[in-house]
């Protein structure tokens, strides 16, 4: 019996007995992933299902997407989880962008599906093209290293995983595969709307940049892999050092430290000795400050981190006084005070 044609995919995270659920929009990428896994389900020894989310956008077009997905799963005898969501309602409540609200809703549904035990992993069909677009978006926004790591191939949750097995596969390969097996797919009309940043990058910026480097997409994907591995290495080092560097509360006369006993306030302030910071190299020093702020629920930009470094006397900034008694007010209610020996970070109550 001839084998069904398939696409290559990363199967390193797939084990016999796994119950895999494909996030199926009806677009070319997710349809190809579903068909590939369906063809490989017996050799891999996996259970296969799909999940489709109607976002409450695009009206009749989205309704047609759902019907297409239902028919595809029926034709291949694949169980389908259907979910109705309302991106407009979420946007009204959270003031997120439409793209961010849709993504957050999707991943909430994926997380709940895994937590309920319906699957061991949810697989999304992000491609190498998606990865290169994401890295470029992060560069344009001024991301840190963790941002440049872009789309991770594996996200481990409290229960289950999100897997991206097509991250080394080009979109053109996927469409060629689907044509070869006479499998249609759905096209989201909003993908052509350059009012969205990703579409503008996809349709306008990347084609221009490829004239300078035809292999740009792979180059950007390589950058993401390097950034991801660098970040993992740094995180290991930070996990080792932070307990030694971050001090709770503030020092009191006669020794010891005053720490709030109010319930839920144990992480409302941290301090770092300036002499200890001085012994660190600039890259580690910057990461320690950002990690300290993150423990208080704040995410620092490059400029905000630079101002903290200036407050400590490690960087020049004419707007920051690097002396005892100086203070900085940063976004998210974060405040920094400099004492003779320490930098203290705390949340404005």
UniProtKB/TrEMBL annotation:
Give yes or no: UniProt keyword Cytoplasm: yes
Q: Which CDD domains match?
A: TilS_N (cd01992)
Q: Could you tell me the Gene Ontology terms of the biological process aspect for this record?
A: tRNA modification
Catalytic activity of the protein: cytidine(34) in tRNA(Ile2) + L-lysine + ATP = lysidine(34) in tRNA(Ile2) + AMP + diphosphate + H(+)
Subcellular location per the Swiss-Prot or TrEMBL entry: Cytoplasm
Matching entries from InterPro entries are given as: Rossmann-like_a/b/a_fold, TilS/TtcA_N, tRNA_Ile_lys_synt, tRNA_Ile_lys_synt_N, tRNA_Ile_lys_synt_subst-bd
- Which HAMAP family does this entry report, sorted A to Z? tRNA_Ile_lys_synt
Q: Which family does it belong to?
A: Belongs to the tRNA(Ile)-lysidine synthase family.
Primary role: Ligates lysine onto the cytidine present at position 34 of the AUA codon-specific tRNA(Ile) that contains the anticodon CAU, in an ATP-dependent manner. Cytidine is converted to lysidine, thus changing the amino acid specificity of the tRNA from methionine to isoleucine.
Name of the protein described by the UniProt record: tRNA(Ile)-lysidine synthase
**Organism ancestry:** Bacteria, Pseudomonadati, Acidobacteriota, Terriglobia, Terriglobales
* Gene this protein is translated from: tilS
């Amino acid at each position: 019996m001839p084998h069904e044609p398939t696409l290559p995919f990363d199967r390193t995270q797939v084990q016999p007995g796994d119950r895999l659920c494909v996030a199926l929009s009806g677009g070319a990428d997710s349809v190809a992933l579903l068909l590939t896994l369906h063809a490989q389900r017996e050799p891999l020894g996996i259970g296969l299902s799909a999940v489709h989310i109607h976002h409450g956008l695009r009206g009749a077009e989205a309704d047609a997407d759902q019907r297409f997905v239902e028919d595809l799963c029926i034709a291949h005898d694949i169980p389908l989880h259907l979910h109705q969501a309302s991106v407009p309602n979420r946007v009204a409540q959270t003031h997120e962008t439409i793209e961010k609200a849709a993504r957050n809703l999707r991943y909430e549904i994926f997380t709940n599906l895994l937590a309920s035990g319906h699957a061991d992993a949810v697989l999304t069909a992000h491609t190498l093209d998606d990865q290169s677009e994401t890295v470029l978006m992060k560069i344009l926004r001024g991301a840190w290293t963790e941002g440049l790591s872009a789309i991770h191939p594996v996200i481990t949750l409290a229960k289950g995983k999100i897997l991206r097995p097509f991250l080394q596969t080009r979109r053109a390969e996927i469409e060629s595969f689907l044509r070869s097996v006479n499998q249609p797919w759905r096209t989201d009309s909003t993908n052509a709307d350059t009012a969205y940043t990703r579409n503008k990058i996809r349709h306008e910026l990347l084609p221009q940049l490829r004239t300078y480097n035809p292999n740009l997409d792979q180059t950007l994907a390589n950058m993401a892999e390097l950034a991801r591995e660098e970040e993992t290495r740094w995180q290991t080092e930070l996990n080792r050092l932070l307990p030694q560097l971050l001090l709770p509360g503030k020092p009191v006369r006669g020794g010891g430290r005053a720490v709030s006993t109010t319930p839920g306030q144990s992480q409302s302030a941290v301090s770092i000795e300036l002499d200890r910071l001085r012994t660190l190299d600039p890259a580690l020093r910057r990461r320690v400050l950002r990690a300290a702020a993150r423990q208080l629920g704040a995410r620092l930009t490059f400029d905000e981190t630079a101002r903290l470094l200036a407050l400590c006397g490690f960087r020049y900034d004419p707007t920051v006084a690097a002396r005892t008694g100086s203070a900085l007010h940063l976004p998210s209610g974060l405040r920094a005070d400099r004492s003779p020996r320490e930098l203290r970070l705390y949340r404005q109550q």
